[in-house]
Design a protein that fits this description.
Structural class: alpha+beta
Strand content: 15-25%
Number of strands: 7
Distance between the termini: 33 Å
Order of helices and strands: HEEEEEHEHHHEHH
Strand order of the largest sheet: 6-5-4-3-2-1-7
Number of helices: 7
Helix content: 55-70%
Length: 276
């Protein structure tokens, strides 16, 4: 009885950790602080004559689906907002100015991305040394993979919560609903969260760390940005750690995986002895 009580205590703890892990990932999806940045013009002609401290500068943040920023072309700050729009295998943070009442129209965004991606592709095909991040572009398939991996992390987190509660209050018969399942669901959650975190970190290093602005700001206005990962990204890292902690707690609790085949074989042997 004491052993069962000890195991249930650990299981209750894994439920709370799983809830936190799922909550952190949901919070990461719903907040717009995956990347933050500041920047200034590379060609700052005329900027020194402006008495404003934020002349020729930009700053902002964005999440998995949208963001907001401010840019000063040397004529005062201009508020802007952006959202991810994808078409023709490419995605970009389509950006409009809020001070002029512009809206994030999806059709206009698709048209913009089609135009900018065709320019990039044409130059690339000609052998010019151009990069997708210079045009504010990143791959659609890669982006969707990140979203799918993180979503599956949430799914397996919910499955973990359900089966752990069942193991606390119920009497699981099948191995998959018992110890084996608890290890499996947490391991799957850990794997998918790890893949999602790594993929976004790679996207940050290959694209967002070099440029997060539309091509017009990067190319024509010569703005250069200094970006860093923000707290929404680290929410997913916390979720990843939660799944790992669950696996360690299951190990320390003594909640081991036994082979159902062996148990059935032992029963058969016992029955044979009794009959004999």
């Amino acid at each position: 009885m004491a052993g069962d009580s000890h195991k249930k205590t650990f299981l209750i703890l894994t439920v709370f950790i799983s809830i936190i892990a799922v909550g952190l990932t949901v919070a990461a999806f719903s907040t717009d602080n995956w990347v933050k940045y500041t920047g200034s013009k590379l060609n700052d002609t005329g900027c020194y004559n402006n008495t404003s401290d934020d002349a020729c500068t930009t700053n902002g943040r964005f999440g998995l689906f949208r963001g907001d920023n401010e840019i000063n072309y040397n004529f005062g700050p201009r508020g802007r907002k952006s959202k991810v729009i994808c078409t023709d295998g490419w995605c970009s943070y389509y950006t409009v100015r809020t001070d002029q009442g512009e809206t994030l129209d999806t059709e206009a965004g698709i048209k913009y991305i089609k135009n900018i991606s065709s320019i990039y592709t044409e130059k690339k095909d000609k052998g010019e040394n151009v990069h997708d991040w210079e045009y504010g572009l990143f791959g659609f398939g890669y982006w969707v993979t990140i979203l799918v991996m993180l979503s599956l992390g949430i799914v397996w987190g919910l499955v973990t919560i359900s089966f752990t509660v069942f193991n606390i209050f119920g009497k699981p018969i099948e191995t998959i609903t018992g110890p084996l399942g608890l290890y499996l669901w947490n391991l799957l959650g850990l794997i998918f969260m790890l893949i999602g975190v790594i993929l976004f970190a790679v996207l940050f290093q290959t694209n967002f760390a070099k440029n997060v602005l539309p091509q017009n700001d990067y190319g024509y206005h010569t703005f250069r940005t200094d970006s860093s990962l923000d707290y929404s990204f680290y929410f997913t890292v916390g979720s990843l750690v939660g799944f790992l902690l669950n696996l360690l707690l299951l190990m320390f609790s003594g909640y081991s995986v036994r082979c159902a085949c062996t148990q059935e074989a032992n029963k058969a042997i016992d029955n044979g002895i009794i009959l004999y």
